[in-house]
Amino acid sequence: MKRPSSDKIAQSVFRAIAFSAIASLLLIAVFILKEGLPFILRYGPLQFLGRSEWDPSQGFYGIYPMIVSSLWITLGAMLIGAPLGVAGAVFLSEFVPKPAVRIIKPAIELLAGIPSVVYGFMGVMVLAPLIRGHLGGPGLSVLAASIILGIMILPTIVSISADAIGAVPNSYREGALALGATRWQAVHLVVLKAARSGILASLILAMGRAVGETMAVIMVAGNTIQFPHGVLDPVRTLTAHIAIEMGAATGMHRQALFATGVVLFVAIMLLNAVATTAIRQKVKRT
Amino acid sequence: MAVAVLGAATLLMLAVLVFIVVFVLDKGLPNITWTFLTRPPEEMGRAGGIFPFLVGSFLLPILAIAIALPLGVGTAVYLCEYTRETRLTRTIRFGTDCLAGIPSILFGLFGLIFFVDILGMGWSLLAGGLTLAIMVLPTIIRTSEEAIRAVPYAYREVSCSMGATCWETVRRVVLPGALPGILTGVMLSVGRCIGETAAVIYTAGSAESGIPTSVFDSVRTLAVHFYLLATEGISTPKAYASAAVLVIAVLLVNLTAYWMMNAFIRKRSR
Amino acid sequence: MADLVKLPDECRNLDARVVARDGIAVIVHPSCAVTNLTCDQIRDVFNGAIANWKALGGPDAPITVVSREAGSGTRTSMEQIVGGMKLSSGAIIQSSGGTVGETVANDARAIGYLSHGMVNAKIRAVHVNGNACTVENIMTGDYLLVRPIFLMTRKNAPVATQRFLAFILSDAGQAQIKKDGLIPAK
User: Fold this and answer.
1) C72-128, pLDDT tens digit by residue?
2) Gap from A254 CA to chain C (nearest CA, Å)
3) Which domain holds residue C100?
4) In CA terms, which of A118, A149, B126, C96 is 20 to 30 Å from C169?
5) How far apart are the first and last CA of chain A?
6) Least CB–CB distance from B197: residue in A6, A83, A115
7) 8 Å CB contact between A178 and A105
8) Interface ipTM > 0.85
9) How many folded domains does chain B comprise?
10) Which of B43, B44, B233 sits opposite C98 (nearest CB)?
11) What total of structural domains would you count in chain C?
12) Mean pLDDT of B46-64
């Protein structure tokens, strides 16, 4: 198809826009790498990642406990947020009348606008005492952080998944029903599969948010540098580590913190890669 | 049976939402007065009001979305409409997803070093807006992409068969059809901007500098105000009052946006 | 502005003036049975050597130690005054005085420290070596945990900065500091 010149112009414009967006994103990646990579190369990545002691005054920069803690908390947040969120999205899209959805969906997105510090305070004032009273430990723990993060990522998962499910053409549902499926069978065998990519996008964005959340986690996770032996232990995540120590860090200490940022970036890359390939494998098989 | 489980999950979610909102409103509403909403702060926030911070919380997300929306939607349009699915597009998408996971404090530090320092903007609305724009860009790109993809291919075929160019198709058929999905991304991003603290403190500043008269003025948002009041122990009642105002404002913004969008869709389908 | 007992080496090239003083309150939950702690006890609690309230005359319950982050002025001052403090590895760390206060207010087994101006109805300051954490005791020097508040400027600061400094150190400025709940330098 020969494109008229107006279309060629539009194409160039969009290409420029796309590249400038990508460029700005690259800028951040470059910035983090520039500040943190030299330290990693100098100190030794295995030392940095594998050591358990962090004591800048003695030159120890091991972030292994923080890596493990971040993984636990992210996993916990996804275990709480993903099922709740997707279930809620399915219910809202398929089984709730439209007028109600018009109020409920914006209301859930309201959760996204609450400052993370407010979530943090709620965690300290309500959630931690609850955990401490019923389950033990100091309350400020992996569990507290997972729950708070799980709640914080709900709007992302619910909204985007609901959109994806709503976008599935009605013909799919009608076809399934015509073949004798129940409403629920039509939903989980046909509609969910069709909305797969949107739901996955929402989960990936949510996971990114969970890994990167700082302020709320600082307030409820306890920030103790140790390995979690159970979900009731106070721990320190990679993000909390950066935020807490950055204010007073100079020289090598500061570089080590940026290096922690690099590790975070690589971690999220790995998580995303695993998630996308796992789903793609599943798609190929069906 | 399965439906009951789904319903229970939804109910649980809504219960959590209601609890959080009630928590904030219960602590904050009693302290909201007309003076609080319209006057500047006094005594570091122990008395007086929050008007300049309301303005800041209003302007900063607008600036951020004004930058991020065209960039994000444009990128999504390019990825979906103007190129084929190649390794490059997959890499771009992967990179966007990864950047969604960068902690807000790193965005703040980046903004501080790049916009405030190197580009010399100082602590300003502009530095804050640019930083927040980059922060929400992944969300807008991804949601726009999903929304554009969701527009049935048949629509495009019909449009092209009637002689429209690619750009006309995008403008008249694809984008309006993708609007609800794009709006979702915008709403989530606005929420993120309004509630963001770390990135904003490092770039837009936290000094009580009054109502900004230019994009180069520093500005304190309500979220930052809550953070400072609560963590420095300045005034807990006023802190929660600020949070309550925030919650109500976000709810109003969301409801208004959806109402406007529904009106737009209704008008188009007539 | 700095709030350390001893300024770090990096400040050598800056002018430091004491403009106010601030007491550090050691706080516990209002229901806590302990009302007085010696400096040694404080050191041992935060080091982790004393891990149960039993050893301090309280109930048989583990102590939840809450501290500020490394690099915090309050924490560094605490450590410099009490001496020999190496925070136990199991301590909870919060990144601001407000959150320390909130954490202790919601945990009957917690102990922490913050600027005395932040003490509110939800927490209680213990006496240190028999002295209560009051403005009078801080000014007379009876209360031990006090640190100076410095305003730092570059040597040869601009006129406006010098005028501001002069104002703060004047009687009117110091009165304002007192009015805002802090303790004047003199």
Assistant:
1) 889 989 998 988 888 888 899 998 888 999 999 999 999 999 998 888 889 999 999
2) 12
3) 24-145
4) C96
5) 35
6) A115
7) no
8) no
9) 1
10) B233
11) 1
12) 88
